[in-house]
Amino acid sequence: MKLLSALPVLAIVALASLQVSVSSCSKENTDTLVVRDTVHITDTLQLKDTAMTTAILTSTVWKTQESRWVRDNSSISYYLRGGSGNTESLDIQTLTFRADGTGTHYNADGFTVQFNWQWLNNEQTSLKYIDHYPSPTGDHTVIWEHIVYKNGAIKFGEYVTQSTTKLVGYSIWIPVAFTQNANLRLD
After folding, report:
1. Could you tell me which residues come within 8 angstroms of residue 58 by beta carbon, excluding any fewer than 6 positions away?
2. What are the tens digits of pLDDT across the range 87-96?
3. pTM, to two decimals
4. What does the CA dihedral 170, 172, 176, 181 come to, rounded to 10 degrees?
5. Helix, strand or coil for residue 81?
6. Domain 54-175 has CATH 2.60.40
7. Residue 169: beta bridge partners?
8. What CA–CA distance (Å, rounded) separates 131 from 129?
9. Which CA distances in Å does 41 have to 37, 48, 124, 172?
């Protein structure tokens, strides 16, 4: 009978030791996750300036946004529409090109002059216009080279031959309708 009364105690001790041995067992459980991600991105977007065309040139009246020039190898001038450090004012100057090869130049001095113009190459990156000033001033020949049309603006190098003056410069012209400067500046 003593054995029967000791049986519950033995069962509790056996269960407790089993519990300790099970809980003290350690098993290393390693889950390995290997992620391989190979992404190849190829960007074939080519940003190009829009080619200048007669349609673009004759579609609007143009005004100076920014201009830098040297007159007679001696004086350097600069203008930026809305700028504070301008050496000359070109605020009122405009050019209107017409498809028939004529145009109107309202110059910085407030004079309106008629001109004739033509492309100088098939790529339409160079043009010449001749302002027809009355005597004694006479004609002014203006050459635009390396013409780029970007962000609605025309950017070009220029040189002007007048009867008594030579001018070399670099300019950006924008449509008169623009109320703020184009996102384009002289380098």
Report:
1. 97, 98, 99
2. 999 999 999 9
3. 0.71
4. -130
5. coil
6. no
7. 69, 158
8. 7
9. 13, 21, 36, 36
